[in-house]
Amino acid sequence: MKTKSFLLAWLLAVTISTSGWSKGGVPFNPLTDIYYDEIELTFLGFCVCKRGPFTVIGLIWTYWEPFVAIDSVTTPFYSPFLGMPVGSALIDELGGKNASQDAVSIANESTYAQAHVFPIPLLNWLFCNRYDYPFWMTEFDPQWQFDELSMLIHPEAALYANPIMQMACMADAAATNVGAPMDSMPWCIGSGGSSYPMTGHVDNDNIVQANNTATARMIYKLNRIMMICDPAMSLCGCRNTPVWVKSHYKMHVVRPGVRSPAWPMGVNAAYYNIGLNRPMAGSLGPNDEFLWTVYRRQLCCTCCD
Predict the structure, then answer these.
(1) What does the UniProt keyword field contain (predicted)?
(2) Cα–Cα distance between 126 and 236 in angstroms, integer?
(3) From CA 157, how far away is CA 187, in angstroms rounded?
(4) Given 86, 114, 164, 237, which residue has the most CB atoms within 10 angstroms?
């Protein structure tokens, strides 16, 4: 019954009005908001792949591709990527930070964020040609709003919802903070806590860390629903990874301030959050509204990407 009432509220909330368009900032700039030193283009040798009845030879290249920019925001329909709102919710049910449906009871311990995924296929011409560049807005995704509905795409979350499995994430946090996230623990996002549920509800009142976690969950969700594939799993093609390989992704924040270099998913926010989210709007955009440039590892044989 509770879920039904939330669904009704969500249906009302996604009715877009134009009455709340007050925020604004500097739109995403590929010249300043991509850290090109992260690309690290490397030649690894020669490769052989099967293509139908033929065997073809190519060159092995690997690099980090900035492939999406992701908003994680307190204000629904506000986009730091665009530097402007694209609408507003008629009611506050979609609001972020501590404005979710459980705000009264969890205001001191959790954060809530909406997410928007924007493709930035600037390097899809460089050796490894890929075509999985998604667009997504969670305001229109009921599974992002309601933890119960999200279980439909990750029923295995029940296996990890216990103190022992969550305590194990401390090992992943330590490894992530030295640049070596543990792919054997996909239910963990380093210092960000749990990968589940794949929603905007994060049990962390540190808004920077929580928005980092929400962004990482969005990447996991896109893998789970097969809107993106993992190009570092095979030389001879991009493979779907419904259980993500998190070490193949990294990101850095570019709104409300620009911070580089890129870090693994779930690195402790203390590495980059000094002066990032000030109480007032900065020169690039309002506080509590984040934008992240996300990189993925590319690995391909040039004959067969």
Answers:
(1) Signal
(2) 16
(3) 8
(4) 114
pTM for the whole thing? 0.89
- Rg of the Cα trace of the chain? 19
Distance separating alpha carbons of residues 291 and 212, to the nearest angstrom: 10
Strand, coil or helix: what is 3?
A: helix
Residue with tokens 């054997």: 184
Whether 244 and 181 have beta carbons less than 8 Å apart is answered as no
**Residue indicated by tokens 């020169």:** 283
Contact indicator for 147, 197 with CB cutoff of 8 Å: yes
Nearest-CA neighbor of 265 among 215, 301, 205, 303?
215
Cα-Cα-Cα-Cα dihedral of 215, 226, 47, 303, to 10°? -110
* SS3 category, 139: helix
pLDDT in tens, 185-232: 999 999 999 999 999 999 999 999 999 999 999 999 999 999 999 999
Nearest-angstrom CA–CA distance, 295 and 122: 12
Tens digit of each residue's pLDDT (9 = 90 or more) over 52-75 = 888 889 999 999 999 999 999 999
Q: Return the residue matching tokens 């501590």.
A: 98
Q: What is the DSSP letter of 188?
A: B
Residue 239 corresponds to which tokens in the numbers above? 């493979």
* CA 297 – CA 235 distance, rounded (Å): 12
